[in-house]
Amino acid sequence: MVRVFFSLSRWPLGLLHALGLCMGWLAYGLSPSYRRRLNAHAHQAGLSLGQRLRAVGQAGRMVAELPRLWGRPREQALGERVQWRQVEQLDQAVLEGKGIIILTPHLGCFEIVAQGYAERHGAQKPITALYRPSRQAWLAEVMVHARNRPGMVASPATLAGVRQMLRALKQGHTVGILPDQVPPEGMGVWAPFFGRPAYTMTMLAKLVAQTGCAVVMLRGERLTWWQRHRLGCDYVIHARRMPADIEALLRQGEAEPSAVAINQLQQEMIMQCPEQYLWGYNRYKNPRADILTSDKPAP
Fold first, then answer.
1. CA-wise closest residue to 130 among 271, 297, 293, 12
2. Residue 236: which H helix or E strand, with range?
3. Which of 287, 292, 245 is nearest to 265 (CA)?
4. Which residues contact 7 (CB under 8 A, 6 or more apart)?
5. Which of 145, 202, 245, 279 is the most exposed place for a label (fewest CB within 10 A)?
6. Distance between CA atoms of 280 and 287, rounded to whole angstroms?
7. C-alpha 53: how far from its chain's center?
8. 252: which residues sit within 8 A by CB, 6+ positions away?
C-alpha cells in the first residue's frame, strides 16, 4: 500500500482531483450514514442544493490530493504553487516574537496550510501540529514521513503531544490546531456551531491564557483547473489575524465565551468557501473519553 500511495504522489494534481471527484460520489452513494450526515450538516448551515452537491466532490478531492501533498520530496519546495492572501497579518504576528497558534478548520486543503507556513516561516518559527495516528500501520508510517518536514514537527494526539505544544509556544514557536475537531470528554464545552450545540475544545483558551501567544486563522483554498491555469498556482492560503477583542477574551481563559467566539469565527471563515468544508465530518458527535487520557497514541 505504501508503494501504491507514493506512486500516486507522482500523478498530476488535475488527474488526482478527477479521481477524487469519483471517490467522493462513490462514498456518498455507498454510505447512507455519510450521505445523511453530510446533507444534514450542510442544510443546517443553510447551503443550497448546488453547494451541497459540490461539497461531495470536494470531499473526494481532499482525499485524492493527499498522496501528492504527503509524498512530496522534502527537498522540493512548494514555491509559486502556493500563493498567499492577506499574508501581512501572519507576517506581523511572526515579527512580534511571541508564540503563535494557527487555527485551520476542516476547510479546503488544510494539509497545505502547515506545509505553506513551514516553508515561509519554519526556519525562524517552526510549527508543531497535533495529529491522530492512523490505526492502519502503513498509513501511520506515511503520516509520520509526510508531517515531519523542515520547519514542521508532527506530534501524536497524546498528553505528551499537548505538553510539547505548550513548550513550543513558550519558546516562541508556532502550533497548528484544528479548532472544529471534537475534543476528548472533559476538554471541551458545548457551544453553538451553525445553530446546533457542538462539543468545542477549551484547550485553545488555556494555551493562550498560559502563554499570551498570538492567534492567526488560515485556510487553504483548493483551486479549480481553470483557476490554477489562470493564477499559475494550485492553492491559495488566506490569512486573518484573530480580532483583538477575541484574543483578549482568550487570554482571560474563559472557556464558554471563548468557545462561542471561536465557533462564530469559524462559521465566517467556512462560509467564504462553503463547498470546501468537510460537512461529512461528525462534528456534533458526543466526545470520547480515551483520546488524550494517556501518552499512548489514540486508536
1. 297
2. strand 235-241
3. 245
4. none
5. 245
6. 17
7. 22
8. 205, 209, 258
Predicted TM-score (pTM) of the model is 0.91
Longest CA–CA span in the chain (Å) reads: 50
Q: Cell triple for residue 149?
A: 518536514
Beta-bridge mates of residue 83: 236
Give the DSSP H or E segment for 241. Answer: strand 235-241
d(CA 208, CA 101): 8
Grid coordinates of 265: 469565527
Q: What angle do CA 142, 145, 150 make, to 5 degrees?
A: 155
Structural contact between residues 174 and 126, judged by C-beta atoms closer than 8 angstroms: yes
Q: 243 pairs with which residues across the strands?
A: none
pLDDT digits (tens, 9 = 90+) for 89-111: 999 999 999 999 999 999 999 99
Mapping DSSP onto H, E and C, the string for 136-180 reads CHHHHHHHHHHHCECCEEEEECCHHHHHHHHHHHHCCCEEEECCC
pLDDT digits (tens, 9 = 90+) for 1-44: 778 887 888 899 999 999 999 999 999 999 999 999 999 999 99
CA distance 159 to 200: 18
SS3 of 217, please?
Answer: strand
The grid cell for 231 is 493564477
Confidence of residue 136 (pLDDT cuts 50, 70, 90): confident
